[in-house]
Design goal:
Layout (H helix, E strand, L loop, with lengths): L20 E6 L22 E7 L3 E2 L5 E2 L8 E4 L5 E5 L2 E7 L3 E5 L1
């Protein structure tokens, strides 16, 4: 594969969530402050925003009925700061979290 291949052109490995789990790709942190100051890597906060990559089938209740998740692939979401487990899949770093860790869908 050439070095100029785009991210979308590369073959992506998949991480398929089960139950009420969601796979999220975290957004990049800001490179500058609003005043124009460049931030070193050590000063950057990990953003609590990202894009849903894939979702599980939903949660089963006590009667065995499966309820679908409220989020879908492609949704931009806000989640709690320490939500999920980080996984490296290919060149991508993904978060695997419960739907309960997602606070809102960005419109």
């Amino acid at each position: 594969m050439s070095a100029t291949a785009t991210k979308s052109a590369r073959k992506k490995s998949t991480l398929i969530p089960l139950g009420d789990r969601v796979v999220v790709e975290r957004e990049e942190s800001e490179q500058r402050t609003s005043g124009g100051i460049l931030l070193p890597d050590s000063a950057k906060d990990k953003p609590a925003r990202g894009t849903v990559v894939s979702v599980g089938e939903g949660k089963c209740d006590s009667k065995g009925v499966r309820h679908p998740l409220q989020v879908k692939p492609g949704d931009r979401v806000v989640f709690t700061s320490y939500a999920g487990e980080a996984f490296k899949v290919g060149d991508d770093e993904l978060l695997l979290m419960r739907e309960d860790d997602i606070l809102a869908i960005l419109g």
